[in-house]
Amino acid sequence: IACVLSGLPESIIAAACARSGQRVLHVDSRNYYGGNWASFSFSGLLSWIKENQQKTDVSDECEDWRKLILENEEVIFLSKKDKTIQHVEDFCFGNQDSAEDIEEAGALPKLPVFGASGAEGVAQELEKGCPPVESALPEAGSREPEKPTGTEPASAVEGSDKEVTSENGSSHSTALGESTLEFGKTEAAPPEISAQEPKKITYSQIVREGRRFNIDLVSKLLYSRGLLIDLLIKSNVSRYAEFKNTTRILAFREGQVEQVPCSRADVFNSRQLTMVEKRMLMKFLTFCLDYEQHPDEYQDYENSTFAQFLSTRKLTPSLQHFILHSIAMVSETDCSTLEGLQATRKFLQCLGRYGNTPFLFPLYGQGEIPQCFCRLCAVFGGIYCLRHSVECLVVDKESGRCKAVVDHFGQRISANYFIVEDSYLPESICTNVCYRQISRAVLITDQSVLNTDSEQQVSILTVPPMGLGKPAVCVIELCSSTMTCMKDTYLVHLTCPSTKTAREDLEPVVLKLFNLNTEKETENEELEKPRVLWAVYFNMRDSSGIDKNSYDGLPSNVYVCSGPDSALGNDCAVKQAETIFQEMFPTEEFCPPPPNPEDIIYDEDEIAPEDSGFSNSPETKLESSSEESSSRDSTAVKKEDNEE
């Protein structure tokens, strides 16, 4: 198997193929894992912005490889210019005068800047002066937290078991190395700094603390009962990552941000709803859980929108708004009744598995997830080459199948199957393909959109369309305990399907929620809003949902993976990966669980006989419930996962 680019679908396929005993070569022309699924430090993101603002064509320096093409073969040249990112605009709203010549803390001279989050682990180890952990492979999905600056010894945050964190508790977990709130208990705050006022953060501080940022190119959350969580548990890849609960579901209504009660306890403890509204809401949500058992209540509205269906129920306007935009999270104009009921049921079924909300967020960013699957692939013999571009596909004229690829060194590499990300395909193959676009914005702010007693909140907010033909905007706000931003700042992601450029689509929402003024404000309304310290807007191609037959002249053994889609979850990527794997190997199991290390049989020359398999139930940090757990058979393998 030859995989080109290391996005999430490609990484899942590579892991599944390696786990089933296939030989896998995974190459990427970039110097980081993840492609458009990657996470960057602040300096890495600045480098990425510069690269996409100053795109240049890469010249073909090596012509010798053409001698490797036989008479009965033809080539399909792969694109060297990334056209998936457009309209990149970045802005600094803080004082930049003192930011000149400021470097990130612990920055190493004369080393390449690794933007992806997995490469930051090495730099963080060097920054702390700690010796690297000896292992056969670098641990892609789990990194050592940065050493706290308080008086606690380092051992206070070392050696703890990894776990899914919840929103209760003063600090989010010792396993996550986040103990700043615990320091606040024992160490009094300086008297001159008010607990109510946000600390003044300068641009130079952001640059200096840039390694504390892990900024995702694509903003997503993991449904607690979604396909990706199920796959992480089944394959035991979850042990390579840590997760944090999304603690709040927010709504934007009548110009105000409000918290939405979604669990039964939240509904009955809510002060926003009257007793009548609480009964209305609980009755409707109970109906949504088993709506298929009551077709007479919705079948007359199957051709109507979900918003029209809600208006026929005994629900107040505020409840209709909460259900439509914060629970179902669907379009007011385009979503049918059945689609809305399905989305509402999915939300409700995910409640309570790992917390009071349906969502999890991976620590250090979404870019950790592709790296986790890359690590599983490497453990089972997969070979990885970054900064390694592919010039072309070599196709046999008679059979129409791809026989090999030729890399930028002029090497011909043969394989039976080829996985290519859509952005690598030339325009000649994509003439009949119609792409959508995603509008993205990333903000660094000084306070939360809804301040509460706890600063460590992970929130999701859906802002309704702000005009006719405008899309709803999904806003995800991350705190410092997610290991994606520095202390006293928040990282805010905005996402919507594109209608214009990202700035034109998203700036009206930014102006509604945040303060962009750099001068000292006089209006109370502006003072209450969080201040934006830095922002970037860009458009990203959405190539999901494209049928393989839409690509002209594509060989039958070349499979195309799409980039990120605009949906909140990751179901599209997992479905695509499983579909491609089953087309290649219909008799193989998709991502079976690996054996526990203590069950591995070692032999210097060969793998143990097939009749010496073992049955085991691997433990994961994302543990399935007792009724979901089952004993899984696994075969003995030669490789050892040194983490265990």
Can you describe what's shown?
This protein is an alpha+beta fold and 644 residues long. Among the domains are: 2-82 and 364-434 and 544-584, FAD/NAD(P)-binding domain, CATH 3.50.50; 263-350, Guanine Nucleotide Dissociation Inhibitor, domain 1 (Orthogonal Bundle). The protein is 23% helix and 18% strand. It contains 15 helices and 24 strands. It has helices at residues 8-19, 42-53, 120-128, 180-186, 203-208, 227-235, 264-269, 275-289, 306-312, 317-327, 337-350, 368-379, 502-513, 524-528, 571-584, and strands at residues 2-4, 25-28, 39-40, 73-77, 85-92, 215-216, 222-223, 243-245, 248-253, 256-259, 359-362, 383-386, 390-396, 402-407, 412-414, 418-421, 436-445, 459-463, 473-478, 490-497, 532-542, 558-561, 614-616, 632-634. It has an 8-stranded mixed sheet, sandwiched between helices. Strands 12-2-1-16-22 form a 5-stranded parallel sheet, covered by helices on one side. It starts with a strand and ends in a 10-residue tail after the last strand. Residues 620-644 have a biased composition (Basic and acidic residues). Residues 166-177 have a biased composition (Polar residues). This is RAE2 geranylgeranyltransferase.
Features of this protein?
single chain; 644 residues; alpha+beta; FAD/NAD(P)-binding domain; Guanine Nucleotide Dissociation Inhibitor, domain 1; eight-stranded mixed β-sheet; five-stranded parallel β-sheet; 24 strands
